[in-house]
Design brief:
By secondary structure, the chain is of the alpha/beta class. It has a single domain, classed as Nonspecific Lipid-transfer Protein, Chain A, CATH 3.30.1050. The protein contains seven helices and seven strands. It has a five-stranded mixed β-sheet. A two-stranded parallel ribbon has the order 1-7. The relative contact order is 0.16.
Length: 184
């Protein structure tokens, strides 16, 4: 009559596929609970970029990426914020910030924030929607976008360049999400 099986402190599906609300969601560990869900095989979403749902799925995709984990084990430089500049003609009336709390190969939190909140991150990368769209389609690398001034960086460029593989793996994680672009 169970409420599902428990595995490492996370909720699991019960006999009828329902999540047992009495079980904890967080995995615990050295940093406490996770604010980002884990991506499981078969979990697919089709959402608009940069919606809160897309950002949540992105955090899960980052945590599911072995490539990101391996490339970022030494990342201890703080949060990264990605800012999409306003573009009212496609429904982005004010800047949208994507806060990624990254540490040693994991994404501890992924959430949508205001531009003001995003500016408090150790690293802020901002750009127009069209440029972010090109990044997500792997037509423009994030470091190349910064060097070509299509994206702006607030933070240490030498540190970002040192973690170029991490940046590439963040893009790779984003490409695993079925993304709907607002201007299409």
């Amino acid at each position: 009559m169970g409420g599902g099986r428990r595995h490492r402190g996370r909720r699991t599906r019960g006999p009828r596929g329902a999540v047992d609300a009495r079980r904890p969601v967080a995995s615990g560990g050295r940093h406490g609970g996770r604010a980002v869900p884990r991506l499981r095989a078969g979990d697919r979403v089709s959402v608009a970029f940069p919606s809160p749902e897309w950002v949540s799925a992105y955090g899960a995709a980052i945590n599911a990426s072995e490539g990101y984990r391996a490339a970022s084990l030494e990342w201890t430089h703080g949060a990264v914020a990605l800012v999409v500049n306003p573009q009212p003609e496609i429904g982005i009336k004010e800047a949208v910030g994507i806060w990624l709390d990254l540490d040693r190969g994991t994404c501890r939190e992924a959430k949508v924030v205001s531009q003001g909140e995003a500016e408090r991150a150790a690293f802020v990368i901002a750009g127009d929607y069209a440029h972010w769209k090109r990044v997500l389609r792997k037509e423009l690398g994030p470091i190349a976008g910064i060097m070509q001034r299509k994206l702006t960086l607030k933070g240490s460029l030498p540190i970002v360049v040192r973690f170029v593989k991490s940046a590439e793996q963040l893009v790779e994680a984003a490409t695993t999400l079925p993304t709907r672009f607002l201007d299409e």
